[in-house]
Amino acid sequence: TIMKECDIINNKKYIPPVYIQVRDILVEKINAGEFISGDQLPSERELSEIYNISRMTARNALSQLVDSGYAYRLKGKGTFVSYPNIERDFVKLSGFSQMLKSKGIKPSNKIVKSGIIEADKKIASLLETTIGTKVYEIVRIRYGNNIALALEYSYLPINLFDGLLKYDFEKDSLYKVIEENYNYKLKYSKQWIKITTLNKNQSIVLNVKEHTPAFLLESISYDVDERVVESTLSLNIGDRTAFYTELWPNNF
User: Fold this and answer.
1) What is the dihedral of CA 227, 164, 110, 126, to 10 degrees?
2) How confident is the model at residue 5, as a pLDDT?
3) What is the pLDDT of residue 83?
């Protein structure tokens, strides 16, 4: 409900400007999922008709939404709900879903494929094993607020995780299963970041243009006994991802 300035006299309380009220209504709709990332928002004309306000007020409301980071403009096309931009934390060891939840972003996953493969040179190096060793491969699209953020390849030693593929990793957290169902307490992870671009198949899976810039995150996770329990190759869409770390002096 839009409250006009004349209501101030009757209610004797502060009433935000109408364009702020409209902005807040749109924010509530975005947070409630009525508008999701990538959706086009109502135009200035549509907002003016819906809320019985001027075009200028509607324009200001949309500008406030953009300034607040909830939306972006495309010239000649309109205003759209922003894609989530995640900040991946290099300070804490946590799973992708847990990281998204901590930032108020709804996580979800889609299995692209899962099975047992023979480790090639790259995978064998990550898992600190020999080429040809059989390992689990789990490939998932990682979503935030229903928008694809990353394509993730997870590899785990078969000898440590008997029957791993019986779990539903569209719903189950891989890190949680490792710790709670197999009793491997994760201690630390080594991680590397590289700049790359998505090839044709990766772009199709993530529904973005071919050669879209991406961050390739390689990680190796160790348990308290210094065993490699999991390694990951994660392709993170470039304009939807940032990375955060902290640096401390040696003599701190």
Assistant:
1) 30
2) 47
3) 67
